[in-house]
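User: Hi! I have a protein structure encoded as tokens and I'd like to know what sequence might fold into it. I'm fairly new to this, so please keep things simple.
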């Protein structure tokens, strides 16, 4: 989990606030990093944690040379603890909060401080949040807690009021594209990534590092375009492509990813229909989008967005995913 402050595009004020907190002697013991999903909250938390555990804290941290920095660089500093929702759970459990409390009472292993990064503080179980609150109020002097959240309003107000809040915001697409180009991404690809990111540099950097994410999106959009070009009576077999025979949870995750991409495609169809194709996000799909915009009227496009959102909500509410996807497939318009 090596991350550095150099991994950021934009959000200069917030990044500088974290980077200089300790070197200026303005550090505190609890932070809440807020901002939309995949904007870079975890990256900022990990970069900051690397600085807090650096032995050269009083000078130019992270120094990159001390035993702590070496351990951070090897991806596993024993004094940096990442706490997140387990894959099969909807909340961060009380036992996980209890573990934070226990670990914070022990001496650090390698550094002079310990850092706990609690990802998505809004999904803390009530009891977990209440227990953690005590540690946030009166932490051991060598403990720093960093919480992150997509939605600060969903975090317990008592927790929120005891943290220093650091906000990350979406950036202009040009800023994201330029940041990617500075990292060696070629111009057209940087432009596509910036548009798809919706101004979230964290997503853009992660996707440029991991092309599999773009391949998944390509598969999702190709499937949608295939569905629309297939008569309704023949569509049901296409649902197989989103199913994972190994695990229902994976099928849900796969469908949620597909629905997100599909809604983005439909929004672009709406933009095309309004006569503003220069504003579309999925610029590599312009041909199919223009075709849909010509064939469909505005109510059909809006209905497709609403219906896809509904199917997504059903899957989230534990409806059988196969039923949810089949219902949606039959309701999407026919462009044959
Ligand atoms: Zn160091």
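Assistant: Happy to help. Inverse folding works backwards from shape to sequence: for each of the 336 positions I chose a residue that suits the local structure. Here it is:
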């Amino acid at each position: 989990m090596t991350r550095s402050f150099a991994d950021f595009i934009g959000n200069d004020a917030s990044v500088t606030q974290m980077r200089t907190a300790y070197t200026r002697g303005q550090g505190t013991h609890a932070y809440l990093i807020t901002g939309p999903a995949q904007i870079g909250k975890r990256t900022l938390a990990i970069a900051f944690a690397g600085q807090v555990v650096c032995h050269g804290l009083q000078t130019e941290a992270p120094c990159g040379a001390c035993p702590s920095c070496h351990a951070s660089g090897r991806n596993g500093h024993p004094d940096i603890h990442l706490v997140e929702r387990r894959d099969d759970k909807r909340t961060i459990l009380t036992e996980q909060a209890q573990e934070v409390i226990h670990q914070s009472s022990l001496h650090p292993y390698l550094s002079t401080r310990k850092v706990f990064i609690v990802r998505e503080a809004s999904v803390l179980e009530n009891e977990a949040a209440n227990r953690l609150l005590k540690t946030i109020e009166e932490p051991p002097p060598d403990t720093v807690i960093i919480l992150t959240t997509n939605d600060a309003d969903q975090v317990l107000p008592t927790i929120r009021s005891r943290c220093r809040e650091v906000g990350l915001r979406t950036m202009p697409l040009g800023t994201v594209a330029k940041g990617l180009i500075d990292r060696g991404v070629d111009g057209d690809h940087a432009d596509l990534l910036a548009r798809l990111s919706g101004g979230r540099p964290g997503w853009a950097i992660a996707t440029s590092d991991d092309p599999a994410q773009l391949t998944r999106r390509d598969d999702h959009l190709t499937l949608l375009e295939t569905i629309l070009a297939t008569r309704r009576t023949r569509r049901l077999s296409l649902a197989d492509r989103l199913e994972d025979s190994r695990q229902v949870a994976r099928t849900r995750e796969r469908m949620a990813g597909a629905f997100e991409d599909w809604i983005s495609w439909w929004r672009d169809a709406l933009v095309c229909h309004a006569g503003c194709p220069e504003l579309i996000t999925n610029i590599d799909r312009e041909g199919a989008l223009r075709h849909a915009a010509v064939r469909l009227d505005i109510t059909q496009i809006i209905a497709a967005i609403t219906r896809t959102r509904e199917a997504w909500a059903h899957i989230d509410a534990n409806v059988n995913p196969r039923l949810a996807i089949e219902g949606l497939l039959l309701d999407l318009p026919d462009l044959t």
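A useful reference point when you look it over: The mean pLDDT is 90. Feel free to ask if any position seems puzzling.
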